[in-house]
Design a protein that fits this description.
Layout: H1 3-28, H2 32-50, H3 58-68, H4 73-90, H5 94-99, H6 101-126, H7 131-140, H8 146-156, H9 160-189, H10 196-224, H11 232-254, H12 258-276, H13 279-306, H14 308-311, H15 317-347, H16 356-364, H17 370-381, H18 387-419, H19 426-453, H20 458-481, H21 487-511, H22 517-537, H23 539-544, H24 546-549, H25 554-566, H26 570-605, H27 607-634, H28 636-664, H29 670-688, H30 699-704, H31 714-721, E1 725-729, E2 734-736, E3 744-750, E4 753-756, E5 764-766, E6 771-772, H32 776-779, E7 786-789, E8 793-799, H33 800-809, H34 811-825, H35 852-860
Antiparallel strand pairs: 1-8, 2-7, 3-6, 3-8, 4-5, 4-7
Length: 861
């Protein structure tokens, strides 16, 4: 049989076989990998028994093709391992991974070293095999396989944190164990015995080099994917290429760990790619990688299991005893890390406490799988490894792997049930009953409505409706007996729900094209930190994060400085557009969350908690509104342009949706749709170009607009303009305080301020081109209001001493100012409708106030 036909028949036959195993595993209630191992061993025995004998037919040819197929470690490592690692890492929630990063690193790195040395030294006591060979075996069995464990967790509804701890450990300990394996294998085959320091440095170089390579590859792909956006085939193909390229580049060009590189690249794509890859493609990409991961995990397990009968052909009772030594050393070392070192992290404040039931399940759930078998196969194929060591590694690794699968794997479900980890906590149980009661009542009403709509006989509907009524009554009776949740617990639960919903809404707006990629990434990073704060501190954590959520970034300050000092407008224009989009996005989502509270959260947590949550959100929404108002005051013309761009982008999205709907209804053809799409793309690119930001103000015009200086001639205005001194104030900085003696007036060259006048419910806001504090130059009275910067403000300050020196030299100017002051001290009465007027820099305020707008507002109060 031709070699190609052999491989096609073997692989296609195995794929057909594994397609039948998941439902069989579910029916037998055993982990899928355990069933895979059993089927693989059975196939291996069938090959040894029947392959090579005379016979015809597809089954006989299938066994012969499996027997003739060259299953080498290189095939498994280079074809299947990158896919297996990439799929596992891509599915990990990076933000939640970092919630428990220290426990995960402890189990993924420290536990690998502890297991390696514990198993190595234990075997060295009971066998004449060299220490390096024993340590090599320890490194092979140090890596855990999450597939069986996580599938059991999901079936039983185990806590999400426990699942994340196990997934994170297995993801990263593969990298650590394989890097350590490579180091020890090199020491064994070179007959070199480098010191511990040299070995540690080499390990760190491999690990750090893999991280750097994977990060660079992942970021490059996230940039390259932009030009092929909305091309699903190309986008998904790029990620498949990334898995293999990062592995090969790290292993053969950088000289680092390819496994670490693949894991890092997948984590980068998983965290950044969701906003870089087109939204329509992301869901398809996840499905494709789940399929690839299923194939890789199944085939690598079956192919290695096929070799088990040959590897264990010469096993004896002494080998069984050594397998038990490995089991004992690995279990004790893992227990030492879990129950000895992990509490130290919690005590040092580096991690949340991990409960004893969690640690027990992690101890019993440390199953080994395909990676360990593949590494053992690599040792048996290495001609520089002595035959005695090859047999030693093959027998003990295979025996240990199958012990963990058939003993730990088959009993793990019982251990979880025994510890009660499949049960809800009292808080979760109360939430479950509230949600279930709400759902049952709604379903009952909808069933009655459907029956009425389709004119179904009442007798046919009555039994179904009564079932829901009985279930609802039972839930309500159970609710009446359970301990009520205290108010603070319910508020914290509500805030967690709101923050998670907020993150979902940002992604929805990104998928709809309303939010740009960069804004969506930033807002979701901040939402992640907000969720951490809520989980740690509840209501206080949420409130502490309200202002930082919309705070100015350092880049904004740098961009503002470049614009003011060097006249470079592009960075500030980009940051302003970015900030404006952030504020609009946050405001929109906050308003949607208020509706979400009224529609959903209040029904589950109660109206009292809903009112508290609404109050908390209202405060945050007011801060966003204030920030938006400041931006519009600071850059009024540019704000209008940005709003127009924002609305135009939304209009393009709606237009595109209409075109696709017309195509779906066969009203327009694919050719027409493509032509319309090209036109949309051209207009979208035109909207992406930022308009120029021009804030150059004419000092003469700025001074001439002040009511105090109206009517002055040009030379006098120029004299005043030469006395102006620039001053930069930061967001939130108080410029003048109530009760201080007035010693200057202020021109707002760019920015916005708010005047906090006593007795007014809302502060008066002043923007670019406006002025405050000029009456202090004439009256030297004390300030009667605080003035605070709403953002970065560039002010021009006229000192009272400079002003009076100028006035003394110019008698005409002095007479003009005296007449203006006299008119302000005796202003004409305001008509009633003036109460609704908006303060402007051209309004004439009363004489006794420090800021014109503030005085006008106070007089109208």
């Amino acid at each position: 049989m031709h070699v190609i036909v052999i491989y096609v028949l073997a692989v296609s036959g195995l794929l057909a076989l594994v397609s039948l195993l998941p439902p069989l595993a579910a029916r037998l209630r055993v982990p899928y990998t355990v069933l895979l191992a059993a089927v693989g061993v059975a196939l291996g025995l069938a090959i040894q028994t029947f392959a090579g004998q005379g016979g015809t037919g597809p089954f006989h040819d299938f066994l012969n093709s499996l027997a003739e197929m060259d299953i080498s470690s290189e095939v498994l490592i280079y074809i299947f391992l990158p896919v297996l690692l990439f799929e596992t890492a891509l599915a990990v929630d990076v933000r939640r991974l970092f919630d428990d990063v220290w426990p995960i690193l402890l189990m993924a790195v420290v536990a690998v070293f502890v297991c390696t040395f514990a198993v190595g030294y234990a075997l060295n006591l009971f066998t004449s095999m060299g220490l390096v060979a024993c340590l090599l075996l320890g490194a092979i069995v140090a890596t855990t396989d999450p597939a069986a464990v996580v599938s059991i967790f999901r079936d039983l509804g185990a806590p999400r944190r426990l699942t994340m701890l196990v997934e994170g450990e297995s993801l990263l300990n593969d990298a650590a164990a394989i890097a350590l394996f490579t180091l020890l294998l090199g020491m064994l085959t070179r007959n070199a015995h480098g010191g511990a320091t040299e070995a540690a440095m080499e390990f760190l170089r491999d690990f750090a080099g893999g991280v750097a390579t994977g990060y660079v590859c992942g970021r490059v792909v996230c940039m390259v994917v932009e030009p092929v956006r909305d091309q699903p085939m190309a986008e998904i193909t790029l990620t498949v290429a990334l898995a293999y390229l990062s592995y090969v580049l790290a292993e053969h060009y950088v000289g680092a760990s390819g496994v670490v590189a693949v894991v890092t690249a997948a984590l980068v794509v998983g965290s950044v790619g969701r906003t870089r890859i087109s939204p329509a493609t992301w869901g398809a990409l996840e499905h494709v990688w789940k399929q690839l991961g299923f194939w890789a995990n199944s085939l690598i397990f079956l192919m290695t299991a096929l070799l088990v009968p040959r590897l264990l052909g010469g096993i004896g009772w002494s080998d069984v005893g050594l397998v038990l030594v490995v089991v004992g050393a690995a279990t004790v070392s893992r227990a030492l890390v879990l129950f000895g070192l992990l509490p130290l992290l919690s005590g040092a404040g580096l991690a949340q406490r991990v409960s004893h039931p969690y640690k027990t399940v992690m101890l019993w759930g440390g199953l080994r799988g395909a990676v360990s078998l593949t590494l053992a196969l690599a040792v048996t194929e290495n001609g520089r490894v002595p035959d005695r060591v090859q047999g030693f590694v093959a027998v003990l690794v295979t025996g240990f792997v199958f012990y963990t699968l058939f003993i730990n794997g088959t009993t793990l479900r019982a251990v979880i049930n025994l510890l009660g980890l499949n049960k809800l906590s009292p808080v979760e149980h109360a939430m479950r009953n509230r949600a279930l009661a709400l759902s049952l009542a709604g379903v009952r009403e909808r069933v009655e409505g459907l029956a009425h709509r389709y004119e179904v006989d009442e007798q046919a509907v009555a039994s179904t409706v009564s079932q829901y009524s009985d279930r609802l009554d039972a839930i309500l009776r159970e609710q009446s007996t359970e301990a009520p949740l205290n108010n603070e617990d319910r508020v914290t639960i509500g805030l967690v729900i709101l923050v998670n919903r907020e993150e979902e809404l940002y992604y929805e707006h990104f998928r709809e094209g309303i939010l740009s990629r960069g804004v969506a990434e930033l807002l979701n990073r901040r939402t992640g930190r907000l969720l951490d704060a809520v989980k740690a501190q509840g209501r206080a954590g949420y409130r502490a994060f309200e202002e930082p959520f919309i705070s100015f970034t350092p880049w904004m300050r740098v961009a503002s400085l470049l614009h003011r000092r060097l006249g470079i407008h592009a960075p500030l224009a980009r940051r302003l557009a970015f900030r404006f989009e952030i504020l609009l996005g946050v405001r929109t989502v906050q308003r949607e969350l208020l509706e979400f509270i009224n529609d959903k959260v209040g029904q589950v947590l109660g109206t009292d908690v809903a009112c508290e949550l609404e109050g908390i959100l209202t405060v945050r929404l007011a801060m966003v509104e204030q920030a938006l108002a400041a931006l519009k005051l600071q850059y009024p013309d540019y704000a209008l342009i940005l709003q127009s761009r924002y609305v135009s982008r939304a209009a393009l999205r709606l237009e595109e949706a209409d075109y696709r709907a017309l195509f779906a209804e066969s009203i327009i053809s694919q050719e027409i749709l493509s032509d319309l799409q090209r036109d949309l793309d051209d207009r979208r690119r035109a909207l992406d170009a930022l308009p120029k930001l021009d804030l150059r103000l004419d000092l003469m015009d700025l001074v001439g607009r002040v009511p105090l200086f109206k009517g002055l001639e040009g030379d006098r205005l120029r004299g005043i303009a030469t006395l102006l001194k620039p001053r930069l104030v930061l967001p939130g900085e108080t410029i003048v305080r109530r009760g201080e003696r007035g010693d200057a007036m202020f021109f707002i060259a760019s920015g916005a301020v708010e005047v906090l006048v006593p007795g007014l419910d809302e502060p008066v806001q002043l923007g670019t081109g406006e002025v405050f504090g000029e009456m202090a130059l004439l009256t030297r009275q004390r300030r009667n209001a605080d003035v605070r910067a709403m953002g970065y403000c560039q002010l021009l300050v006229l000192d009272v001493r400079d002003f009076h020196r100028l006035v003394k030299k110019d008698a005409s100017l002095r007479a003009h100012l005296q007449s203006v002051a006299e008119a302000r001290r005796n202003p004409p009465p305001k008509p009633p409708e003036a109460v609704q007027e908006v303060a402007t820099p051209l309004a004439d305020p009363p004489a006794v106030v420090e800021a014109p707008a503030a005085e006008s507002a106070q007089a109208r109060g």
